[in-house]
Amino acid sequence: MQPHTVLIVETKPRKDTQEGLLPALASLGLKGKVFRCEENCLQSRERFSSLLTSTVTFLLRVNETEDASIWEFLLWAAGEVRARGGLVLSDPLVSLKLTDKGLLEAVASLPYAVADGVRALYGDIGSALEAARGGEWILKPTHGRAGRGVIKISRDSAGFCAVDVGSGRTEEQSLVQIVERCRHHYPESSWIRRGFVLTPFLPRIAEGELRLLLTGNRCVGVVARGTPVGALSAAPGSRWLPVEEDEETDRLRRVFLRTLPRLANAAGLDAEAEWPLVWTADFIRRDLPDRFDVEEVLPFALSEINSLAVGHTTFPSMKDFGFSLANYVKDRVEKTSIPIQT
Ligand SMILES: Nc1ncnc2c1ncn2[C@@H]1O[C@H](COP(=O)(O)OP(=O)(O)O)[C@@H](O)[C@H]1O
Ligand SMILES: [Mg+2]
């Protein structure tokens, strides 16, 4: 039997893999091996196959990528590992489903659903915007790109106004321009189901965002980031810092974990689906409706889930809570039937 290998699949070299994860795995008797995912997937497949044995764990740490061949490769690679009896931690298919912001629409009955509903649009953005009543909306692509491409749309009697959430710049003034811009950036022919989510603008974004750091079905900690005065977003690139947990954050954490099976259902996941190795759920504060059931509604709305590119940014911040990714990997590996030999 060969030693147990943890294949870490990355699209870009990561310092925290080289200096953090690999030495930590080694100290636990696990052999870590980085597999760099090339754009030429045919070559990648050959190289990947030659590494496969039944004692392989597949650990995905992928950067955001628009490259369809990389996604096809990742899905194929996870299948190959499974076919040989290996363990897949961080299933790319689960990640794809969870990070699809169309999910916001599917969580409509959960305590952290966005009030007033969310529309996931895969077709005609123009008519959906026409039909949206007045007020302020957020339009964002169904798969996130670190805050890029998110726009705030206001509609009043004078017409539409769109502001880029990241830069704060006013981008387009007319509906036609907004629709053209979306079509240009996110063609419907794209490999990942490309669509948009139209969701009510939550003004309390001014108070920042709250993030649950998750690993499997556990919440490791809660972090927050503020929104600079006058800005619409702290993204991209600002730091998430640990929060001192109070009753409110504690309740958010408890309710979220309790509803995981329902969330899996809403995302169309196998109820037994392994939650990703490292993932996050982001929340924005919201005002509660006049009448509500305290047990059924939270003063937070789920604004997105991250589990694709999140590994490298979240792994260091999880350390703030005493979480060791290497220990966790070892734990998961030991719980499977695959014997570890070192
Ligand atoms: N419903 C909303 N109301 C107000 N601001 C929002 C809303 N949804 C997103 N934002 C802002 O836009 C930013 C990017 O949105 P997000 O869903 O996190 O996309 P990404 O996947 O690109 O990170 C958030 O960090 C937040 O500042
Ligand atoms: Mg985000």
Structural class by sheet pairing and helices:
alpha+beta
Q: What is the terminal-to-terminal distance?
A: 9 Å
CATH-assigned fold name of the largest domain:
D-amino Acid Aminotransferase, Chain A, domain 1
Q: What value does the Rg take, in angstroms?
A: 21 Å
Summarize this structure as a short list of keywords or feature phrases:
single chain, 342 residues, alpha+beta, Rossmann fold, D-amino Acid Aminotransferase, Chain A, domain 1, 11 helices, globular, binds adenosine-5'-diphosphate, binds magnesium ion
Describe this structure in words.
- With 342 residues, this protein is an alpha+beta fold.
- The chain folds into three domains: 98 residues, 3-Layer(aba) Sandwich (Rossmann fold); 123 residues, ATP-grasp fold, B domain (D-amino Acid Aminotransferase, Chain A, domain 1); 82 residues, no CATH class.
- It has eleven helices and 15 strands.
- The chain has a six-stranded antiparallel β-sheet.
- Helix 1 links the parallel strand 1 and strand 2.
- Helix 1 packs across helix 11 and helix 6 runs antiparallel to helix 7.
- It binds adenosine-5'-diphosphate and magnesium ion.
- The site of adenosine-5'-diphosphate (ADP) has 19 residues, from strand 6, strand 14 and strand 15.
- Adenosine-5'-diphosphate binds next to strand 6, strand 14 and strand 15.
Short description:
This protein has 342 residues and is α+β, with helices and mostly antiparallel strands.
Write the layout of secondary structure elements.
Elements: E1 5-10, H1 15-27, E2 31-36, H2 41-49, E3 56-61, H3 68-83, E4 87-89, H4 92-99, H5 103-106, E5 119-121, H6 125-131, E6 135-141, E7 151-156, E8 159-164, E9 170-172, H7 175-185, E10 196-200, E11 209-215, E12 218-225, E13 241-242, H8 247-258, H9 260-266, E14 279-285, E15 300-306, H10 310-319, H11 325-335
Parallel strand pairs: 1-2, 1-3, 3-4
Antiparallel strand pairs: 5-10, 6-7, 6-10, 7-8, 8-9, 11-12, 11-14, 12-13, 14-15
Adenosine-5'-diphosphate binds at residues 138, 140, 144-147, 150, 165, 199, 201-202, 205, 209, 233, 235, 282, 284, 303-304.
